[in-house]
């Protein structure tokens, strides 16, 4: 799920999925290993997928299921058991057409599909800081988390403090002094 959310957020910021370097960084981050070298078509396909997944995350559960099914049909994941490094047997989803983008699509769509099946899509929330709006998975007990990161939380706290200070100084200067 981390990869699916990262893909949505990368597309959202319009700068983290722009170049082939961005693409390789993304693939490294999520340990996507393919025998194929990523090409420009993969980048274009993943930017499109980012938009599709963003709509999934914002949709109702039923609509999200329908949209994810469309991505699953296109990417056509073939599950395979794999074991490597310190990881015991686990499922890999290879895409039938073997392209890097389809592999990412297959993996991301399967992750979102599992969330929908477990009815956990509601744990996916959007950052409350205006100008960020990144998605994150809220694992807090009461689902009260509002920000994607400590950075957003801090910068909103600073902004709120400035607003309060500005409005309190405006109030005190407009209040006529007695004496
Ligand atoms: Zn693996
Ligand atoms: Zn944020």
Features:
Jann2411-like fold; alpha+beta; 179 residues; single chain; two-stranded antiparallel sheet; binds zinc ion
Task: Describe this structure in a few short sentences.
This protein has 6 helices and 4 strands, in the order H-H-H-H-E-E-H-E-E-H. It has 179 residues and is of the alpha+beta class.
How would you explain this protein's 3D organization?
The chain has 179 residues and is α+β, with helices and mostly antiparallel strands. The chain has a domain at 2-117: Jann2411-like fold. The chain is 55% helix and 13% strand. The chain contains 6 helices and 4 strands. The chain has helices spanning 2-12, 20-29, 40-58, 61-75, 100-117, 150-174, and strands at residues 77-84, 87-95, 124-126, 135-137. The strands form 2 sheets. It has a two-stranded antiparallel ribbon. A two-stranded antiparallel ribbon has the order 3-4. β1 and β2 form a beta hairpin. The longest helix is centred in the last third of the chain and has 25 residues, at 150-174. It is elongated, with a radius of gyration of 21 Å. The protein starts with a helix and ends in a 5-residue tail after the last helix. The model has no long low-confidence stretch (mean pLDDT 89). The structure holds zinc ion (ZN) (2 copies). Residues 127, 129, 132, 134, 147-149, 152 line the site of one zinc ion.
